Each structure stands twice: as structure tokens, then as C-alpha cells.
Amino acid sequence: METVVSIYEYLISLVKDNSKIPISLRNKSIIGTTQDDPFDNWVEDELRNGLGAKFKIFHSGKLQTPDLVIHSTDLNQFIGIEVKKLSQQDNGSDGRGLTLDYNSCLPCGTTLIKYQSEIIKIPCYYLFALLDKKNENILTMLIMNGDFLNYDFQIHKESKISNFSEYDHGPYGEGSVRHRKMYTYPNPLNSKIKYFYHKFLLVDKDSNFKLSKDQKNITSKIIRTDQSSQNFNFLVRDDLSQNNASEIECIEDIFENCKKRSKKIRTAPIFEIG
After folding, report:
1. Which residue in 21, 124, 149, 273 has the most C-beta neighbors within 10 A?
2. Biggest alpha carbon–alpha carbon distance for the chain
3. Residue 36 to residue 34: CA distance in whole angstroms
4. Residue of 120, 126, 113, 57 lying closest to 85 (CA atoms)
């Protein structure tokens, strides 16, 4: 918990006028590949420069997760950071709505890395950022425990090895089919979620907050209820909040509309004339 608190406190120290974090990204003309994301690099550079010598920052390779691993050398503690960003549209919305693409890797609050030839489990957090249309400022920033989205480590592991290729395809046996699962899970940057929109927050398990030395600025408790009716409590820290309420707000069913989606029958588009 102390490591993620250090990351949160440093990044919100960059907030100007309680409303934005100015950023400077590499020009698109010098971006190497679609996996070479300049915003990921900005986050990496800022953390490397801002956290100090007690933290080591590692950037994963292409198509690997998490994007960053932070090692607190004092605590010998590792955490993963997966970076997800969207750009704001003209009308102020986030451009995605209910869900966000997590590609072939299911989100989770625990992930695997290899350290000194040993595979170890580490906590994984997600840094969600909503940028303005020109990609010059961060307007929403959420650092969120991955368990808020999915706590099932087993299905997370299975997602990493569930992709496969099928060969000998077609009448001549010369084709192949790449079977690649694409996961869409809730989008915390959804502009309709008032608890998150245009805020700079740390969202973590209440049990982790209880272990933290500093429990200031807790503004909300979010109750996540799984399909077995188990409740899991997460707390929201907002260091920029003007909320002086004596009791924290309790929030339930924050992604309720995601559950209301229904299966759609896919049909092949056919070119039509006349």
C-alpha cells in the first residue's frame, strides 16, 4: 500500500488549479509502433523522476502486462501498473462509455512477473487517465486496485494462455486462424460516473487502507457485490476534495449498466446496391 500511495501522492502533486495535470507527449510522427504508447512513456518518465532513488521502475516489453513494475527497494515490495487512457470528445464525454478494451489480458488485482528467475505474484493497479482532446492535460486520473474490476486470479491466468492459432485451414490447407480473445470490462473513465469523472482518486481495498500509515481524505466507500452476493469494500481517497462531510459516502452498483447488456446476434455485412 505504501508504494501505491507514494505514486498517487506524487502524481497529484502535478495537478494545476485542482483540475488538470499538464502533460507533454512525443509527436505521433516519431512513434514506432501501435504498442509504443507515448502516454505510457510519460507515466514511466514522471515516476522515475519523481519517486526518487528508493524506487526502481521497469517497463514491460511489447504485448506484455503490466505496463510498468515499480520496486520499492526499502520495502522490497513490487507492484504492477497497467496504464489505460482515453481522450475526451468535443462534448466532454470519454469516447467509450460503459466498457473499455482490455485486449487479451483480463484485468486483475494480482499478476505474475519473473524476478531473479522465479515467478512471483504481485499486486496490480490500473492507472486510468482521461486526456483532453489535444492530449495536453489529464482531466481524470484514477489509480485503482485491479480487484475492483476482477478479483479472480485464476481466470486472469487462464486468459494469458487461452489464445491459439489453428493451421491447415481452408480447401488447400494453407490458411490459419488466430483465435484471440478480447476482453471488455467496465470503463471507470465513463463520463456518466459522477463519482470518478474529472477527479484525481486512489481506489483501494479497505483492508489495504487499514494497513496504511496515513488514512486521510477518505471520501467514499464503494461496495462491490459479486455474483455469489459476496460484498467487497473499497475506499476512495481524494486529496483534492472539498468535501467536509463528517461521514463518508457509500456507493453501490457503480457499474450497474454493464450488467444490463445483452448478447447481440452477429451478422455478416453484405454490400448492397440499389
Report:
1. 124
2. 72
3. 5
4. 126
The CB density around residue 191, as the number of other CB atoms within 10 Å, is 22
This prediction has a pTM of 0.91
Which regions of the chain does DSSP assign to beta strands (E)? 21-22, 55-59, 68-72, 77-87, 99-101, 110-115, 118-131, 137-145, 164-169, 175-179, 184-186, 200-205, 218-225, 231-237, 249-252
Written as nine digits, the cell of 39 is: 502516454
Amino acid at 225: T
Q: 224 near 24, Cβ under 8 Å?
A: no
Which residue's entry shows cell 499478476?
A: 111
Question: Cis omega (within 30 of 0) on the bond before 66?
Answer: yes
User: Do the strands 118-131 and 137-145 form a parallel or antiparallel pair, or are they unpaired?
Assistant: antiparallel
Q: What is the chain's pLDDT, residue by residue, as a tens digit (274 residues)? A: 789 999 999 999 999 998 999 999 876 555 455 556 799 999 999 999 999 889 999 998 776 789 999 999 988 899 999 999 999 999 989 989 999 999 888 999 999 999 888 999 999 999 999 999 999 999 999 999 999 999 999 999 898 888 899 999 999 999 999 998 899 999 999 999 999 999 999 999 999 998 876 678 999 999 999 999 999 999 999 999 876 666 889 999 999 999 998 888 888 888 889 7
